[in-house]
Amino acid sequence: MLEHIAKFGKPVILSTGMNTIESVSKAVAIFEAKNVPLALLHTTNLYPTPSHLVRFGAMLELHNAFPNTVFGLSDHTLNNNACLGAVALGGSILERHFTDHMQRTGPDIVCSMDEKVCADLITGSSEIWSMRGGTKEPAKEEKVTIDFAFATVCTIANINKGDLLTETNIWVKRPGTGKIFAENYNSVLGKTAVRDIAEGEHLDYKDFE
After folding, report:
1. Which pTM value belongs to this model?
2. SS3 annotation, 19-39
3. Digits of tens for pLDDT over the chain (209 positions)?
4. Domain range summary for the chain, segments of one domain joined by +
5. Which residue, 72, 52, 53, 54, is CA-closest to 63?
6. Is the separation of the CB atoms in 31 and 12 below 8 Å?
7. What is the β-pairing status of strands 93-96 and 152-155?
8. Same fold, 1-132 and 141-202
9. CATH number for the domain whose boundaries are 141-202
């Protein structure tokens, strides 16, 4: 059947419930041989699926095994949490069952979503998608907060040219708009002032030697 589908050359979203990496690899090979764009969805075929059986680890295992393939989650839990978690972990496609109202009868109604929950999923997943990525460094937009929240080295007494910088005449204060951050305070102690410095000034490295 998969070979027949692959002949059409149309993009395929393949749910991988109740399968292993080995069995999924056979399906992937069929579509790759035909250059068919493919997405793989991890799923657990229980209706509903208990939270502990969602197994994000299996979804990531699927992604690691086929890193060039789009991946996501086909979800059968009782709310949007699993889908939102999948997005946070890199999932790009989400699937949940939909019903026009939760009072209908059927084996999958309990794990389906109605219009409101669907809208919440669209909004929430979009927000979480925008939160992904980044590197561990200050964002340029944080500069205004850094200037306020970080402390820099200041004088707490008048200092004459030739005086030593000590704990009695320098300390760290907010706002941190000076040149010397608090983390470098100890390295400044014992230096000699090269000019007269008034109390309350932010120190600069050119102020001492």
Report:
1. 0.84
2. CCHHHHHHHHHHHHHCCCCEE
3. 999 999 999 999 999 999 999 999 999 999 999 999 999 999 999 999 999 999 999 999 999 999 999 999 999 999 999 999 999 999 999 999 999 999 999 999 999 999 999 999 999 999 999 999 999 999 999 999 998 899 999 999 999 999 999 999 999 999 999 999 999 999 999 999 999 999 999 999 999 99
4. 1-132, 141-202
5. 72
6. yes
7. unpaired
8. no
9. 3.90.1210.10
The two beta strands, 152-155 and 170-173, are antiparallel
Homologous superfamily (CATH) of 1-132 is Aldolase class I (3.20.20.70)
Question: What does the block give as tokens for 197?
Answer: 């410095």
Residues found in the chain: 209
